[in-house]
Design brief:
Structural class: alpha+beta
Distance between the termini: 85 Å
Shape: globular
Radius of gyration: 24 Å
CATH class: Alpha Beta
CATH topology: Nuclear Transport Factor 2, Chain: A
Strand content: 25-35%
CATH superfamily: NTF2-like, domain 1
Number of helices: 5
Helix content: 40-55%
């Protein structure tokens, strides 16, 4: 008598499901606090480079945003001595509620064009408030 293959098919299905479950458990671990804050800092700087003031402003702490409106933020961050060109690197070191972040940013002088390859490191403090990390800016 020839087997109908159903038990073997069920076994194969179970093995396939178990294998997929094992693959899911091998996925990368959740990002560290340093990685999460570093990504927020990078995204904020990319918004500043693009002059997307609303997006960049959204990373400011609630206390800052209650003291300075979007127009005040824009006037403080536009028309400076440099034109930000891009983010070159981000590093961060975090405690429970404070992160020290260093962002390396490429820039060009606003007045004298033609200087290429200039960069500076900007030191930032990020604070944990209500489960979210915010950049600490002075009003």
């Amino acid at each position: 008598m020839k087997p109908n293959g159903r038990p073997a098919g069920r076994l194969l299905s179970l093995l396939l499901v178990a294998g997929l479950g094992a693959c899911a458990s091998l996925s990368s671990p959740p990002p560290t606090t340093e990685e999460r804050v570093g990504e927020r800092a990078r995204t904020r700087w990319e918004a500043l480079v693009a002059q997307d003031w609303e997006k960049a402003y959204s990373f400011a702490s609630p206390a800052y945003r209650s003291a300075i409106d979007l127009n005040g933020f824009k006037s403080r961050h536009s028309g400076g001595a440099v034109v930000w060109q891009g983010v070159k690197g981000v590093s961060s070191e975090c405690g429970d509620e404070i992160c020290d972040v260093q962002v390396e940013v490429a820039f060009e002088p606003a007045v004298q064009k033609g200087f290429k390859g200039l960069s500076t490191t900007v030191n930032e403090k990020w604070l944990l408030e209500d489960g979210q990390w915010w950049i600490q800016l002075k009003p």
